[in-house]
Write a structure and sequence with these properties.
This protein is α/β, with parallel strands linked by helices. The protein contains 20 helices and 32 strands. The protein binds adenosine-5'-triphosphate and magnesium ion.
Length: about 625
């Protein structure tokens, strides 16, 4: 990087104004089998192709190329507090397992372009399977383990996989989730069932049943291929690597399609600029491989960068709430990535757990997925004594849209802000109605001017028109990508996410993001979690309702204390937002309905509060939470 670009604003400007030059340089971070001859093809916007003419392979970049210098370095560190098994694979061992798995797929007839659906718990074989797919040029579609049969069936029909790779069961807090039974059921429901099911028998389900002629035992197939070496299939940079569905928070999940070369380059660059990670260090991302964070920062990002990556099967609070910090100490984790939702869970536990491990190896904690409220951010950064970076992204983009970029320049962190526009992202805040760009401190929809940078979705799987209609038609006069999130930006370029644009609340002409009110509510120190939704109101148009989970539920047993708390929370909102933000009512509940990726399902809360149907609940984590909301809003 030249000195001229050592200030982040200049660096960002360069990435937009001289995008070709910028990404051409970044592309040298990965190995190319054939060099590209065009950096970007934007002749068919909004469709974009990065690194045209180049050939590469994700598996080669994540595994093979490290064998020369890192053969004996840990590549994949598997830790399960569910089965109490740990296993570490060096790059050599990872390479061997991926080759065996690729040989198994190949024997079953898998060729470039075939889809393989991976429905697996957090076990190393899931990672082998992902890498084996991309090695062969097959397209993986990892479906979050434990999704109900109907959700799985929908994804089977969308991706039409040749094979499903699954396991007998996953474990959650010691309780078995019988994956194989769910797969059988999903295949019965599906219109395009796969030919074969490969089954990893972990020995959890004693009643495991096999369908003759269709189900194959992974262990047997693997043993027949112990010495396999499967050559890498070189792919065009724009060839698809995987399909992954969005969380379904705002509606029906979308099948995001990702390319190969652009994704590899984007991740490689982010490891240095955003995560400040060095090859040889250890990264611990607590997500699930079924989500985009798991794809990008458990599997591909750290491995492409030559790091050791931790795959953790278990909860953050078992065997006790200190488990993550013990892992950090034991494996000298440098970079950690988690979600605000998980940190809020830890915040409700006793504080001493955080202080009983030596976490001095940590350089930074990165959080994404949901708004990070100030009390949680403050709590965790004071406890860990490292920078805590909120950053904002979507399944669609594959990496951060808004972030601090400490690998380029250390900038002060601001509570409540995920930072600036990341390099490569030409972010504009647009007025919802007029489409005009808004000024500092004015609310607007977060949009991206095409071309989307490398790493972003290239289309919706099998539905090019849906890609355009969903993301690029919100504004009449300009073709921009909309994130469907609402934000403001200050004079220094820091963004503040205010909530989903669908959830904006209009109280007597004042437009408020759910996040603004939620932030005000959670400034009360008894509040563990809160969801705010707007419901229609005859006079004011809409009014906010707040659903609050308190830290100490015993407060609610005593009616005087309950009333006191109710008033104090209203007062807290009054103080920071004034009367317009004041919730019309506060409902105390024991949990909030969330998607399985930990996002609050405000659309369903809102629907129930207005006496409507809660909509698509297939990605809901716990039905009891919805029932509780239903009871709360129908109480006389
Ligand atoms: P769907 O698109 O199917 O409705 P989803 O948008 O929840 O589901 P994801 O791609 O998993 O699916 O989530 C991306 C969304 O998560 C963002 O659009 C934003 O609303 C929210 N989000 C992610 N990171 C942050 C963050 N740091 N701060 C605030 N919100 C965030
Ligand atoms: Mg979304």
């Amino acid at each position: 990087m030249s000195n001229l670009l050592s200030s982040y604003p200049a660096f960002h400007r360069h990435s937009i104004d001289q995008a070709q030059d910028f990404w051409k340089n970044e592309a040298s971070r990965i190995d190319w089998h054939r060099p590209f001859d065009q950096v970007v093809d934007e002749s068919r916007l909004p469709f974009v192709k990065w690194f045209v003419g180049g050939q590469t392979n994700l598996c080669y970049n994540a595994v093979d190329r490290h064998l020369k210098d890192r053969a004996h370095q840990d590549a994949l560190i598997y830790i399960s507090t569910e089965t109490n098994q740990n296993h570490t694979y060096s790059y050599t061992e990872l390479h061997r397992e991926v080759n065996r798995c690729a040989a198994v797929f190949q024997q079953l007839g898998v060729v470039k372009g075939d889809r393989i659906l991976i429905y697996m718990p957090m076990v190393p074989q899931a990672v082998f399977a992902m890498l084996a797919c991309v090695r062969l040029g097959a397209i993986h579609s990892v479906v979050f383990g434990g999704f109900a049969a109907q959700s799985l069936a929908t994804r089977i029909d969308d991706a039409k996989p040749k094979l499903i790779f699954t396991a007998d069961a996953g474990l959650r807090a010691g309780k078995a989730i019988l994956y194989k039974g769910l797969v059988d059921e999903a295949i019965r429901l599906a219109n395009f069932p796969p030919e074969k099911v490969i089954l990893l028998d972990r020995g959890i389900d004693p009643h495991l049943s096999w369908v003759k002629g269709r189900d194959l035992n992974y262990e047997t197939l693997r043993e027949n291929n112990l010495d396999a070496e499967i050559p890498v299939q070189w792919l065009e940079s724009s060839d698809p690597s995987y399909i992954l569905y969005t969380s379904g928070t705002t509606g029906k999940p979308k099948g995001v399609q990702r390319d190969t070369g652009g994704y590899a380059v984007a991740l490689a660059a982010s490891m240095e600029y955003i995560y400040c990670a060095k090859p040889g260090q250890t990264m611990f991302t607590t997500s699930d491989i079924g989500w985009v964070v798991g794809h990008s920062y458990i599997v591909y990002g750290p491995l492409i960068h030559g790091m050791s990556t931790i795959l953790y099967e278990g909860l953050p609070i078992r065997p006790d709430p200190g488990i993550w910090w013990k892992i950090v100490e034991q494996y000298k984790v440098s970079v950690m990535f988690s979600s605000p939702t998980a940190i809020r869970v830890l915040k409700r536990q006793e504080a001493h757990y955080l202080h009983s491990s030596d976490v001095s190896s940590l350089q930074g904690l990165y959080l994404a997925g949901e708004p990070l409220d100030e009390p949680t951010a403050r709590w965790i950064s004071e406890a860990l004594k490292v920078p805590v970076y909120d950053h904002y992204w979507q399944t669609e983009t594959g990496w951060a849209i808004l972030s601090n970029v400490p690998g380029v320049e250390t900038s002060p962190l601001k509570w409540g802000s995920p930072g600036f526009a990341a390099y490569g992202f030409n972010v504009k805040l647009l007025d919802e109605l007029t489409g005009a760009e808004v000024g500092a401190h004015q609310k607007g929809v977060v949009t991206l001017l095409p071309p989307l940078p490398p790493g972003c979705l290239t289309t919706v799987w099998g539905q090019d028109q849906r890609f355009i209609d969903t993301y690029f038609t919100s504004f009449k006069h300009t073709q921009v990508y909309t994130t469907f999130d609402w934000a403001i930006r200050d004079e220094q370029g820091y963004y503040f996410i205010l909530g989903r644009s669908d959830d904006v609340i209009n109280v007597a002409g004042h437009r408020l993001g759910t996040r603004e009110i939620e932030e005000a509510v959670s400034s009360h120190d008894q509040v563990a979690e809160v969801a705010v939704v707007g419901v229609s109101h005859e006079i004011k148009g809409q009014v906010p309702l707040a659903f609050v989970v308190v830290k100490d539920a015993s407060v609610l047993q005593d009616s005087l204390r309950r009333q006191g708390l109710y008033k104090e929370v209203l007062e807290a909102v009054n103080k920071s937002l004034g009367p317009v933000g004041r919730p019309e009512q506060i409902h105390f509940v024991s949990m909030l309905p969330k998607t399985r990726s930990g996002k609050i399902l405000r659309r369903s809360i809102k629907a129930l509060a207005q006496g409507e149907d809660p909509g698509d609940l297939t990605t809901l984590e716990d039905m009891l939470a919805i029932e509780e909301i239903r009871r709360a809003v129908t109480k006389p």
